[in-house]
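Need O-Antigen ligase's 3D structure for a figure. Predict it.
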Amino acid sequence: MAAFALVSWLFIAMIFFAQRAIVPALLIATVFPYLFLPEAFAIELPGLPDLSKTSAISAGLIAGLLLFGARSRSAVQLPVLKVEGRKFRFVLFSLLGAVVIGIVLTVLNNAEWLVYGRVVLPAMRPWDAIGRLFDLIILATPFFLARKYLATPETHRALCKALVLSALVYSLLMLVEFRLSPQLHNWVYGYHQHSFLQHIRDGYRPMVFLEHGLWVGFFIFSAVMAAAALWKAEKKSKWLWALAWIFIILMFSENLGAFAIGVMCLAVFFVANRKMQILFVSLLALAVVTYPALRQAQVIPLDRMILAAGSISEDRAGSLIFRINNEDRLLERVAQKPLTGWGSWGRDRIYDDTGSNIVVTDGLWIIMLGGWGWIGYIGFFGLLAAPLLFMSATARRKEMPPETIALALICAGNLIYLIPNATLTPIGLLCFGALAGFAEFDQLKQTADAVDEPLQTSRSAYGYTRFPQKQTLGQTTADLQS
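Structure prediction for O-Antigen ligase:
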């Protein structure tokens, strides 16, 4: 069933792009498969990256745009954008170049075999750089597509609506797992995607179809912020009710970290003024980018963090101590190859004399730093943090609606979440990319709202035919109303 779902999605994604305009198709073809395709499963393809949930999403987006993107542009007049954030664009592509250079240098600097008892880790070969670049393309596809097509306030509102509507659906599935335990993935695909024991708390922590209950918590946090933005922008009671319901779901989802981040971001969103909001997300982005250096310099108050965790429960304090000890040992390993890291195949891990791996890597920051060194880390995390660090400059150029501020807070919360976890998802990359496009581009001329209802709008509503005529969206909307 899992293999059938992954392969089928490639064709379903193309149907979405064939039937809908680019923006709603992009949103649906990213959010829907992320929430429902199988986890912890991949199809090995000879000479190509494995077909997993992440690669299936990116492949579906690329195939849909290549086959049907031109038709959609003819059927619907997209906003005309011009580059205004030239400094931001230079920084963005410089950081992307740093990631590519870091990959090449990492491969060149790891040409030796590593032997630990009975375990032999292969050297990295020149063609491994090509494989890692393919992995980068697969991972970054939602980011760069969002940068191009979700760069306006209207598309930010569409993204928020997609998050809220999908979270309302997902909340019903979470209720099932609250009561019956995390079983939906097992019922549909025939296996549990993660350890069942990790999801037994005072009750059950839902996983639904995501990698772990922590991923579910972060998705629900994102929807909470999106609902808050829609209510603040439109003042419609339906968004207030949605906010209240999704927040309650988050509160009972057994995700203390996501709940704490949610409360903090909601307070900043509703209480702080625009300057303070921008300062808040900028400082968080800067703190995450420099976090490894702060850890090595022993600036982070780890003792206070352990005491705070202990005040909640001994289990949480023990988990934090275990995580910190593992990170300290991995940082010592990084210090042996600080610029390039150790590359793939588990070469960044620590092994005992029998060849058993004796460390656990959870946070994306230590995974990136150990695998690709400081060059790759700064390049990759810099790409994510750059839209937040440039928000002050962007705000001097144009207004920032509530939806854009909410996306910034979602991204800031995501960066915090990447310290203890590797929760960088296609939906999160859509948010980062949408902010990057907002910082880089300005809209030349206004068009009617082409994306206000992202989950209902189809090409037929815009007069799409097999032979599309040149027609502006404003004219088409007027025709529909008449």
